[in-house]
Amino acid sequence: MADRPTYNSPNAVRRGTHVGGWREGDPVAARKFVDIGAVELERGGVLPSVRVAYESWGTLNAAGDNAVLIEHALTGDAHVDGPAAEGQPTPGWWDGLIGPGRYLDTDKWYVVASNVLGGCQGTTGPSSPAPDGTPWGSRFPFITIRDQVRVEALLADQLRITKFAAVVGGSMGGMRAIEWPIMYPDRVQSSVILASTAYATSDQIAWCAPQIAAIKSDPLWCGGDYYESGDAPTVGLGIARSIAHVTYRSEYELATRFGREAQPGEDPLGGGGRYAIESYLDHHRDKLVGRFDAGSYVVLTESMNSHDIGRGRGGLAAALAKVTAQLHIVAVNTDRLYPVRLSEELAKFAPKGKNDLTILDSPYGHDGFLIELDMIGAIIKNALGAD
Ligand SMILES: CC(=O)SCCNC(=O)CCNC(=O)[C@H](O)C(C)(C)COP(=O)(O)OP(=O)(O)OC[C@H]1O[C@@H](n2cnc3c(N)ncnc32)[C@H](O)[C@@H]1OP(=O)(O)O
Ligand SMILES: N[C@@H](CCO)C(=O)O
After folding, report:
1. Considering only CA atoms, which residue is closest to atom 5 of ligand 1?
2. Which residues are responsible for catalysis (predicted)?
3. I want to staple 364 with a disulfide (CB 3.0 to 4.6 A). Which of 169, 239, 256, 368 is the partner?
4. Was 367 annotated as part of a binding site?
Protein backbone atom coordinates (compact mmCIF):
# COMPACT_ATOMS: atom_id res chain seq x y z
CA MET A 1 0.00 0.00 0.00
CA ALA A 2 3.04 2.30 0.08
CA ASP A 3 2.22 3.74 -3.37
CA ARG A 4 -1.28 4.79 -2.39
CA PRO A 5 -2.19 7.98 -0.53
CA THR A 6 -2.28 7.71 3.22
CA TYR A 7 -5.36 9.11 4.85
CA ASN A 8 -5.14 10.97 8.07
CA SER A 9 -8.64 10.44 9.41
CA PRO A 10 -8.77 8.08 12.38
CA ASN A 11 -11.52 6.23 10.52
CA ALA A 12 -9.45 5.74 7.38
CA VAL A 13 -8.15 2.32 8.21
CA ARG A 14 -10.52 0.22 10.23
CA ARG A 15 -10.96 -3.45 10.89
CA GLY A 16 -8.21 -4.24 8.42
CA THR A 17 -9.84 -2.45 5.51
CA HIS A 18 -9.94 0.94 3.86
CA VAL A 19 -13.71 0.82 3.36
CA GLY A 20 -15.12 4.04 4.80
CA GLY A 21 -18.51 4.26 6.47
CA TRP A 22 -20.41 2.60 9.28
CA ARG A 23 -20.56 -1.20 9.59
CA GLU A 24 -22.63 -3.58 11.67
CA GLY A 25 -20.87 -3.92 15.01
CA ASP A 26 -19.37 -0.41 14.96
CA PRO A 27 -20.24 1.95 17.81
CA VAL A 28 -23.63 3.52 17.19
CA ALA A 29 -23.22 7.03 18.67
CA ALA A 30 -26.67 8.68 18.45
CA ARG A 31 -27.89 6.44 15.62
CA LYS A 32 -31.14 4.53 15.95
CA PHE A 33 -32.31 1.83 13.55
CA VAL A 34 -35.62 0.77 12.06
CA ASP A 35 -36.26 -2.22 9.80
CA ILE A 36 -38.82 -1.23 7.19
CA GLY A 37 -38.93 -4.50 5.23
CA ALA A 38 -38.99 -4.80 1.45
CA VAL A 39 -39.01 -1.69 -0.74
CA GLU A 40 -40.30 -1.67 -4.32
CA LEU A 41 -38.01 0.32 -6.57
CA GLU A 42 -39.03 2.86 -9.19
CA ARG A 43 -36.97 1.24 -11.94
CA GLY A 44 -38.15 -2.25 -11.09
CA GLY A 45 -37.35 -4.93 -8.59
CA VAL A 46 -37.59 -5.09 -4.83
CA LEU A 47 -34.89 -4.42 -2.25
CA PRO A 48 -35.57 -6.85 0.60
CA SER A 49 -35.03 -6.17 4.30
CA VAL A 50 -34.20 -2.47 4.19
CA ARG A 51 -32.81 -0.99 7.41
CA VAL A 52 -32.84 2.75 8.08
CA ALA A 53 -30.48 4.54 10.46
CA TYR A 54 -31.66 7.86 11.81
CA GLU A 55 -31.28 10.47 14.54
CA SER A 56 -34.00 12.52 16.18
CA TRP A 57 -34.34 15.50 18.47
CA GLY A 58 -37.39 16.62 20.47
CA THR A 59 -40.68 14.82 21.03
CA LEU A 60 -43.38 13.79 18.58
CA ASN A 61 -46.85 15.00 19.57
CA ALA A 62 -49.89 12.73 19.81
CA ALA A 63 -51.14 13.78 16.37
CA GLY A 64 -47.75 12.99 14.84
CA ASP A 65 -47.69 16.27 12.96
CA ASN A 66 -45.05 18.41 14.66
CA ALA A 67 -42.25 16.68 12.74
CA VAL A 68 -39.52 18.26 10.62
CA LEU A 69 -37.47 16.10 8.24
CA ILE A 70 -33.89 17.15 7.51
CA GLU A 71 -32.44 15.72 4.31
CA HIS A 72 -28.66 15.39 4.02
CA ALA A 73 -26.66 15.85 0.82
CA LEU A 74 -24.42 13.43 -1.10
CA THR A 75 -21.82 12.69 1.56
CA GLY A 76 -23.71 13.94 4.58
CA ASP A 77 -25.45 11.83 7.18
CA ALA A 78 -28.14 11.89 9.83
CA HIS A 79 -25.88 13.69 12.29
CA VAL A 80 -27.22 17.17 11.62
CA ASP A 81 -26.37 18.53 15.04
CA GLY A 82 -23.95 17.61 17.80
CA PRO A 83 -20.27 16.76 18.19
CA ALA A 84 -18.30 14.02 16.51
CA ALA A 85 -18.19 10.88 18.66
CA GLU A 86 -17.08 7.31 18.58
CA GLY A 87 -19.05 5.80 15.71
CA GLN A 88 -19.76 9.26 14.31
CA PRO A 89 -16.86 10.60 12.22
CA THR A 90 -18.09 14.17 11.73
CA PRO A 91 -19.68 16.84 13.90
CA GLY A 92 -23.16 17.93 12.91
CA TRP A 93 -23.15 19.51 9.45
CA TRP A 94 -25.60 22.15 10.70
CA ASP A 95 -24.28 22.12 14.25
CA GLY A 96 -26.19 24.64 16.37
CA LEU A 97 -29.40 24.51 14.31
CA ILE A 98 -31.42 22.19 16.52
CA GLY A 99 -32.25 22.41 20.22
CA PRO A 100 -34.34 24.25 22.78
CA GLY A 101 -34.69 27.89 21.70
CA ARG A 102 -32.63 27.34 18.55
CA TYR A 103 -33.73 27.88 14.93
CA LEU A 104 -35.28 24.42 15.02
CA ASP A 105 -36.75 24.64 18.49
CA THR A 106 -37.10 21.19 20.01
CA ASP A 107 -39.52 22.57 22.60
CA LYS A 108 -41.94 22.62 19.67
CA TRP A 109 -40.64 20.42 16.88
CA TYR A 110 -39.70 16.77 16.58
CA VAL A 111 -36.75 16.78 14.19
CA VAL A 112 -35.72 13.63 12.37
CA ALA A 113 -32.90 12.96 9.91
CA SER A 114 -32.20 9.59 8.34
CA ASN A 115 -29.23 8.24 6.48
CA VAL A 116 -30.13 7.89 2.85
CA LEU A 117 -30.89 4.62 1.03
CA GLY A 118 -27.72 3.57 -0.80
CA GLY A 119 -25.43 5.39 1.66
CA CYS A 120 -22.82 4.04 4.04
CA GLN A 121 -23.87 5.25 7.49
CA GLY A 122 -26.15 2.45 8.63
CA THR A 123 -29.03 2.58 6.13
CA THR A 124 -28.99 -0.23 3.57
CA GLY A 125 -26.47 0.41 0.81
CA PRO A 126 -23.97 -1.47 -1.35
CA SER A 127 -21.70 -2.22 1.61
CA SER A 128 -24.59 -3.72 3.64
CA PRO A 129 -25.13 -7.46 3.81
CA ALA A 130 -27.45 -8.90 1.15
CA PRO A 131 -29.79 -11.77 2.16
CA ASP A 132 -26.92 -14.24 1.62
CA GLY A 133 -24.90 -12.43 4.28
CA THR A 134 -22.23 -11.05 1.95
CA PRO A 135 -22.08 -7.36 0.91
CA TRP A 136 -24.42 -6.29 -1.89
CA GLY A 137 -21.55 -4.77 -3.90
CA SER A 138 -22.29 -4.87 -7.63
CA ARG A 139 -25.64 -6.58 -6.94
CA PHE A 140 -27.03 -3.45 -5.27
CA PRO A 141 -29.87 -2.27 -7.52
CA PHE A 142 -30.14 1.05 -9.31
CA ILE A 143 -32.02 3.46 -7.06
CA THR A 144 -33.54 6.87 -7.71
CA ILE A 145 -34.24 9.91 -5.55
CA ARG A 146 -37.87 8.75 -5.45
CA ASP A 147 -36.78 5.42 -3.95
CA GLN A 148 -34.90 7.34 -1.26
CA VAL A 149 -38.06 9.32 -0.50
CA ARG A 150 -40.22 6.18 -0.42
CA VAL A 151 -37.87 4.75 2.20
CA GLU A 152 -38.20 7.93 4.26
CA ALA A 153 -41.99 7.68 4.07
CA LEU A 154 -41.82 4.09 5.35
CA LEU A 155 -39.60 5.30 8.20
CA ALA A 156 -42.14 8.05 8.95
CA ASP A 157 -44.88 5.39 9.10
CA GLN A 158 -42.90 3.40 11.64
CA LEU A 159 -42.21 6.51 13.73
CA ARG A 160 -45.96 7.39 13.61
CA ILE A 161 -45.31 10.68 11.85
CA THR A 162 -48.52 11.64 10.04
CA LYS A 163 -47.36 14.91 8.48
CA PHE A 164 -44.14 16.89 8.20
CA ALA A 165 -44.45 20.56 9.05
CA ALA A 166 -41.35 20.98 6.90
CA VAL A 167 -39.05 18.85 4.77
CA VAL A 168 -35.69 20.62 4.52
CA GLY A 169 -32.68 19.75 2.40
CA GLY A 170 -29.81 21.05 0.30
CA SER A 171 -28.28 19.73 -2.92
CA MET A 172 -29.19 16.01 -3.11
CA GLY A 173 -31.19 16.64 0.07
CA GLY A 174 -33.05 19.37 -1.83
CA MET A 175 -33.90 16.82 -4.52
CA ARG A 176 -35.69 14.77 -1.86
CA ALA A 177 -37.25 17.91 -0.37
CA ILE A 178 -38.94 18.70 -3.72
CA GLU A 179 -39.91 15.07 -4.41
CA TRP A 180 -41.63 14.73 -1.04
CA PRO A 181 -44.57 17.15 -1.66
CA ILE A 182 -45.05 15.64 -5.12
CA MET A 183 -45.06 12.02 -3.97
CA TYR A 184 -46.88 12.61 -0.69
CA PRO A 185 -48.87 15.86 -1.01
CA ASP A 186 -50.97 15.09 2.07
CA ARG A 187 -47.95 14.54 4.30
CA VAL A 188 -45.98 17.76 3.77
CA GLN A 189 -46.92 21.25 4.95
CA SER A 190 -43.86 22.99 3.51
CA SER A 191 -40.54 22.23 1.83
CA VAL A 192 -37.30 24.17 2.04
CA ILE A 193 -35.25 23.40 -1.07
CA LEU A 194 -31.70 24.72 -0.79
CA ALA A 195 -29.12 24.97 -3.57
CA SER A 196 -30.96 22.37 -5.58
CA THR A 197 -32.94 21.80 -8.75
CA ALA A 198 -36.02 20.20 -10.29
CA TYR A 199 -33.80 17.96 -12.42
CA ALA A 200 -30.12 17.09 -12.75
CA THR A 201 -28.74 19.20 -15.57
CA SER A 202 -26.42 18.17 -18.34
CA ASP A 203 -23.65 20.14 -16.63
CA GLN A 204 -24.19 18.35 -13.29
CA ILE A 205 -24.24 14.93 -14.96
CA ALA A 206 -21.10 15.94 -16.85
CA TRP A 207 -19.23 16.77 -13.62
CA CYS A 208 -20.27 13.41 -12.20
CA ALA A 209 -18.99 11.46 -15.20
CA PRO A 210 -15.24 11.78 -14.47
CA GLN A 211 -15.95 11.17 -10.77
CA ILE A 212 -17.62 7.84 -11.47
CA ALA A 213 -14.94 7.02 -14.03
CA ALA A 214 -12.19 7.73 -11.49
CA ILE A 215 -13.70 5.26 -9.02
CA LYS A 216 -14.45 2.57 -11.58
CA SER A 217 -10.98 2.80 -13.13
CA ASP A 218 -9.29 2.23 -9.77
CA PRO A 219 -7.94 -1.36 -9.99
CA LEU A 220 -9.33 -2.00 -6.52
CA TRP A 221 -12.90 -1.27 -7.66
CA CYS A 222 -13.28 -4.89 -8.85
CA GLY A 223 -16.59 -4.15 -10.52
CA GLY A 224 -17.96 -2.95 -7.16
CA ASP A 225 -17.17 -6.19 -5.33
CA TYR A 226 -14.19 -5.14 -3.23
CA TYR A 227 -15.77 -5.25 0.23
CA GLU A 228 -14.39 -8.63 1.23
CA SER A 229 -11.00 -8.09 -0.38
CA GLY A 230 -9.67 -6.06 2.55
CA ASP A 231 -9.06 -3.00 0.40
CA ALA A 232 -11.15 -0.38 -1.36
CA PRO A 233 -10.75 1.95 -4.36
CA THR A 234 -9.70 4.89 -2.22
CA VAL A 235 -7.56 6.53 -4.91
CA GLY A 236 -10.50 6.68 -7.31
CA LEU A 237 -12.81 7.93 -4.56
CA GLY A 238 -10.24 10.58 -3.61
CA ILE A 239 -9.99 11.87 -7.18
CA ALA A 240 -13.77 11.96 -7.39
CA ARG A 241 -13.92 14.05 -4.23
CA SER A 242 -11.27 16.47 -5.47
CA ILE A 243 -13.19 17.06 -8.71
CA ALA A 244 -16.43 17.49 -6.80
CA HIS A 245 -15.01 19.76 -4.13
CA VAL A 246 -13.92 22.36 -6.68
CA THR A 247 -17.48 22.52 -8.00
CA TYR A 248 -18.76 23.02 -4.43
CA ARG A 249 -16.82 26.28 -3.98
CA SER A 250 -16.81 29.50 -6.00
CA GLU A 251 -14.02 30.63 -8.30
CA TYR A 252 -14.02 33.94 -6.40
CA GLU A 253 -13.52 32.25 -3.04
CA LEU A 254 -10.67 30.08 -4.27
CA ALA A 255 -8.99 33.09 -5.92
CA THR A 256 -9.25 35.37 -2.90
CA ARG A 257 -8.49 32.70 -0.34
CA PHE A 258 -5.63 30.79 -1.98
CA GLY A 259 -4.54 32.89 -4.94
CA ARG A 260 -1.30 31.49 -6.34
CA GLU A 261 0.19 30.82 -2.89
CA ALA A 262 2.48 27.87 -2.38
CA GLN A 263 1.62 25.55 0.47
CA PRO A 264 3.97 26.69 3.28
CA GLY A 265 7.24 24.80 3.10
CA GLU A 266 6.54 23.47 -0.38
CA ASP A 267 7.79 24.56 -3.80
CA PRO A 268 5.31 24.02 -6.65
CA LEU A 269 7.62 25.68 -9.22
CA GLY A 270 9.55 22.60 -10.15
CA GLY A 271 10.28 21.55 -6.58
CA GLY A 272 7.67 18.84 -6.42
CA GLY A 273 5.57 20.80 -3.95
CA ARG A 274 1.96 21.89 -4.04
CA TYR A 275 0.06 25.12 -4.37
CA ALA A 276 -2.03 25.85 -1.27
CA ILE A 277 -5.23 25.07 -3.17
CA GLU A 278 -3.83 21.65 -4.08
CA SER A 279 -3.01 20.98 -0.45
CA TYR A 280 -6.53 22.09 0.54
CA LEU A 281 -8.07 19.67 -1.97
CA ASP A 282 -5.83 16.86 -0.73
CA HIS A 283 -7.01 17.56 2.80
CA HIS A 284 -10.67 17.27 1.86
CA ARG A 285 -9.92 14.19 -0.25
CA ASP A 286 -8.32 12.50 2.76
CA LYS A 287 -11.18 13.38 5.07
CA LEU A 288 -13.82 12.06 2.68
CA VAL A 289 -11.98 8.84 1.94
CA GLY A 290 -11.69 8.22 5.66
CA ARG A 291 -15.42 8.34 6.23
CA PHE A 292 -17.14 7.35 3.00
CA ASP A 293 -17.55 4.32 0.76
CA ALA A 294 -16.81 4.36 -2.98
CA GLY A 295 -19.72 2.04 -3.78
CA SER A 296 -22.16 4.37 -2.04
CA TYR A 297 -20.59 7.33 -3.83
CA VAL A 298 -21.35 5.71 -7.21
CA VAL A 299 -24.87 4.57 -6.26
CA LEU A 300 -25.82 7.98 -4.85
CA THR A 301 -24.24 9.91 -7.72
CA GLU A 302 -26.23 7.85 -10.21
CA SER A 303 -29.40 8.48 -8.20
CA MET A 304 -28.69 12.24 -8.32
CA ASN A 305 -28.25 11.98 -12.08
CA SER A 306 -31.66 10.29 -12.29
CA HIS A 307 -33.36 13.23 -10.58
CA ASP A 308 -36.12 14.75 -12.72
CA ILE A 309 -39.40 15.60 -11.04
CA GLY A 310 -41.10 15.63 -14.46
CA ARG A 311 -40.17 12.06 -15.38
CA GLY A 312 -43.29 9.98 -16.02
CA ARG A 313 -45.51 12.82 -14.76
CA GLY A 314 -46.00 14.81 -17.94
CA GLY A 315 -43.13 17.19 -17.32
CA LEU A 316 -42.05 19.78 -14.79
CA ALA A 317 -45.20 21.92 -14.68
CA ALA A 318 -47.52 18.93 -14.44
CA ALA A 319 -45.46 17.45 -11.61
CA LEU A 320 -45.45 20.70 -9.67
CA ALA A 321 -49.19 21.13 -10.18
CA LYS A 322 -49.67 18.28 -7.66
CA VAL A 323 -47.96 20.30 -4.94
CA THR A 324 -50.10 21.77 -2.18
CA ALA A 325 -47.22 22.47 0.23
CA GLN A 326 -45.57 25.87 0.49
CA LEU A 327 -42.22 25.73 -1.30
CA HIS A 328 -39.37 27.84 0.06
CA ILE A 329 -36.74 27.80 -2.67
CA VAL A 330 -33.25 29.03 -1.81
CA ALA A 331 -30.25 29.55 -4.12
CA VAL A 332 -26.72 30.75 -3.42
CA ASN A 333 -25.67 33.55 -5.75
CA THR A 334 -22.17 32.11 -6.31
CA ASP A 335 -23.25 28.47 -6.78
CA ARG A 336 -21.72 27.33 -10.06
CA LEU A 337 -22.95 23.73 -9.74
CA TYR A 338 -26.62 24.48 -9.01
CA PRO A 339 -26.84 27.97 -10.49
CA VAL A 340 -29.53 30.43 -9.45
CA ARG A 341 -31.44 29.98 -12.72
CA LEU A 342 -32.41 26.44 -11.64
CA SER A 343 -34.09 27.73 -8.49
CA GLU A 344 -35.73 30.49 -10.54
CA GLU A 345 -37.10 27.87 -12.93
CA LEU A 346 -38.47 25.83 -10.04
CA ALA A 347 -40.15 28.93 -8.61
CA LYS A 348 -41.56 29.86 -12.02
CA PHE A 349 -43.34 26.52 -12.47
CA ALA A 350 -44.38 26.02 -8.84
CA PRO A 351 -48.02 26.82 -8.02
CA LYS A 352 -48.55 30.59 -7.79
CA GLY A 353 -48.78 31.97 -4.29
CA LYS A 354 -47.38 28.73 -2.92
CA ASN A 355 -43.68 29.44 -3.28
CA ASP A 356 -41.03 32.00 -2.50
CA LEU A 357 -37.47 32.35 -3.76
CA THR A 358 -34.54 33.61 -1.70
CA ILE A 359 -31.13 34.22 -3.20
CA LEU A 360 -28.41 34.09 -0.56
CA ASP A 361 -25.43 36.40 -0.92
CA SER A 362 -22.47 34.19 0.01
CA PRO A 363 -18.98 33.79 -1.42
CA TYR A 364 -18.89 30.05 -0.70
CA GLY A 365 -20.67 28.74 -3.78
CA HIS A 366 -22.69 25.52 -3.52
CA ASP A 367 -21.31 24.77 -0.04
CA GLY A 368 -22.93 28.04 1.09
CA PHE A 369 -25.97 25.96 2.06
CA LEU A 370 -23.79 24.15 4.61
CA ILE A 371 -21.76 27.14 5.80
CA GLU A 372 -24.29 30.00 6.09
CA LEU A 373 -25.98 28.51 9.15
CA ASP A 374 -27.59 31.73 10.41
CA MET A 375 -29.13 32.62 7.06
CA ILE A 376 -30.39 29.06 6.55
CA GLY A 377 -31.61 28.80 10.13
CA ALA A 378 -33.65 31.99 9.76
CA ILE A 379 -35.23 30.68 6.55
CA ILE A 380 -36.18 27.36 8.20
CA LYS A 381 -37.61 29.13 11.23
CA ASN A 382 -39.62 31.39 8.95
CA ALA A 383 -40.86 28.39 6.95
CA LEU A 384 -42.20 26.94 10.18
CA GLY A 385 -44.05 30.13 10.89
CA ALA A 386 -42.02 31.09 13.95
CA ASP A 387 -41.07 34.68 14.77
C1 LIG B 1 -25.10 17.84 4.07
C2 LIG B 1 -23.74 17.32 3.87
O3 LIG B 1 -23.45 16.84 2.91
S4 LIG B 1 -22.62 17.61 4.93
C5 LIG B 1 -21.39 16.51 5.11
C6 LIG B 1 -20.26 17.27 5.54
N7 LIG B 1 -19.79 17.85 4.39
C8 LIG B 1 -18.56 17.73 4.11
O9 LIG B 1 -17.76 17.19 4.83
C10 LIG B 1 -18.22 18.26 2.82
C11 LIG B 1 -16.78 18.55 2.74
N12 LIG B 1 -16.44 19.71 3.50
C13 LIG B 1 -16.79 20.85 3.08
O14 LIG B 1 -17.33 20.99 2.01
C15 LIG B 1 -16.47 21.98 3.99
O16 LIG B 1 -15.46 21.65 4.88
C17 LIG B 1 -17.66 22.41 4.81
C18 LIG B 1 -18.75 22.86 3.87
C19 LIG B 1 -18.20 21.32 5.68
C20 LIG B 1 -17.19 23.54 5.70
O21 LIG B 1 -16.62 24.53 4.92
P22 LIG B 1 -15.60 25.56 5.56
O23 LIG B 1 -15.99 25.85 6.94
O24 LIG B 1 -15.49 26.68 4.59
O25 LIG B 1 -14.27 24.72 5.64
P26 LIG B 1 -13.15 24.63 4.54
O27 LIG B 1 -13.68 24.12 3.26
O28 LIG B 1 -12.43 25.92 4.52
O29 LIG B 1 -12.19 23.52 5.13
C30 LIG B 1 -11.50 23.71 6.31
C31 LIG B 1 -10.45 22.64 6.42
O32 LIG B 1 -9.50 22.80 5.37
C33 LIG B 1 -8.19 22.81 5.93
N34 LIG B 1 -7.33 23.62 5.10
C35 LIG B 1 -7.47 24.92 4.79
N36 LIG B 1 -6.45 25.30 3.99
C37 LIG B 1 -5.68 24.22 3.79
C38 LIG B 1 -4.46 24.00 3.07
N39 LIG B 1 -3.87 24.94 2.37
N40 LIG B 1 -3.94 22.75 3.10
C41 LIG B 1 -4.53 21.75 3.80
N42 LIG B 1 -5.67 21.92 4.51
C43 LIG B 1 -6.23 23.14 4.49
C44 LIG B 1 -8.39 23.40 7.30
O45 LIG B 1 -7.32 23.09 8.15
C46 LIG B 1 -9.67 22.75 7.73
O47 LIG B 1 -9.39 21.44 8.18
P48 LIG B 1 -10.44 20.65 9.14
O49 LIG B 1 -11.80 20.73 8.51
O50 LIG B 1 -9.92 19.26 9.17
O51 LIG B 1 -10.39 21.35 10.45
N1 LIG C 1 -20.26 19.08 0.53
C2 LIG C 1 -21.53 18.49 0.27
C3 LIG C 1 -21.96 19.01 -1.00
C4 LIG C 1 -22.76 18.15 -1.88
O5 LIG C 1 -23.87 18.85 -2.20
C6 LIG C 1 -21.47 16.99 0.38
O7 LIG C 1 -20.39 16.46 0.41
O8 LIG C 1 -22.48 16.36 0.49
Report:
1. 76
2. 171, 335, 366
3. 368
4. yes
